[in-house]
Design a protein that fits this description.
Elements lengths: L6 H25 L14 H4 L2 H6 L2 H24 L3 H37 L1
Helix pairs in contact: 1-5, 4-5
Length: 124
């Protein structure tokens, strides 16, 4: 039996996931799109939608793969923070870095107790 994920880390993962979805959509449609009127880059938030149910339920498998997926958003945020010309886009990129880092850290730390328990069961 796997232990329940720690509440703080699971809450961090949940909040960060939802914030990242809103950020990705709002950034490319309204706040600082690459093209006036919005762009198809708003679809970059779609892969995160597949994780909502599993993360909200605290499913370990979903938390594991969404942690890896969050690294793509972290990289995109880093590239755009240093390369975008508009100040609004630069601030949104930094916000994406914060949200993606929160999602990664929350997901990894929420999965950690189950991984430790599995390691102890293998030793026994």
């Amino acid at each position: 039996m796997n232990p329940d994920p720690p509440a703080f880390w699971l809450a961090l993962a949940r909040i960060s996931l939802l914030a990242l979805i809103v950020l990705c959509t709002g950034w490319e449609l309204w706040w600082a799109p690459l093209r006036p009127g919005g762009s198809l880059w708003a679809l970059k938030g779609v892969p995160l939608l597949f994780a909502i149910s599993g993360v909200l339920k605290g499913k370990l498998y979903t938390l594991q793969w969404v942690a890896m997926l969050s690294l793509l958003y972290l990289m995109e945020g880093a590239v755009r923070a240093w390369s975008d010309l508009s100040a609004a886009s630069e601030y949104l990129a930094w916000l994406e870095i914060v949200c993606a880092s929160g999602l990664y850290l929350g997901a990894i730390m929420a999965v950690r107790p189950a991984k430790q328990a599995a390691r102890l069961r293998r030793k026994a």
